Amino acid sequence: MNEQEIIEKIRHSLERVRPYLQIDKGDVEFVRFRKDDGIVEVRLLGSCLICPISKLTLRAGVERAVLHDVLEVKRVEQVP
């Protein structure tokens, strides 16, 4: 699978979790995929920026969905 196909799968996975974040006025934005180490960089937006459990949301929600959907991904990290 080429890098563009992987990125499309990542974007699709993020679209699947976005409605759950948007319920609480939050959101997630794809920043980039680092193919060399399998890391996806995302930016949390809206109320996710000030939420005390945003790290849990990132790991248990966003990362879990992306890891399930895209085997090439090893980790999801938040960037500013």
Folded structure, characterized:
This protein has a single domain, classed as GMP Synthetase, Chain A, domain 3 (2-Layer Sandwich). Strands 1-2-3 form a 3-stranded mixed β-sheet. A hairpin with a 4-residue loop joins strand 1 and strand 2. The protein is of the alpha+beta class and 80 residues long.
Descriptors for this entry?
46% helix; GMP Synthetase, Chain A, domain 3; 3 strands; 3-stranded mixed beta sheet; 80 residues; single chain; globular; alpha+beta; 2 helices
SSE topology:
Blueprint: H1 3-23, E1 26-34, E2 39-46, H2 54-69, E3 75-78
Parallel strand pairs: 2-3
Antiparallel strand pairs: 1-2
**Alpha-beta content class:** alpha+beta
Strand content range = 25-35%
Figure out the total of helices.
2
The SSE order reads HEEHE
* Biggest sheet, spatial arrangement of strands: 1-2-3
Multimer state:
single chain
Mean pLDDT: 95
Distance between the termini: 29 Å
For this structure, the CATH topology is: GMP Synthetase, Chain A, domain 3
| CATH classification class | Alpha Beta
Task: Give a quick rundown of the structure.
Helices cover 46% and strands 26% of the residues. The protein contains 2 helices and 3 strands; from the N terminus they run H-E-E-H-E.
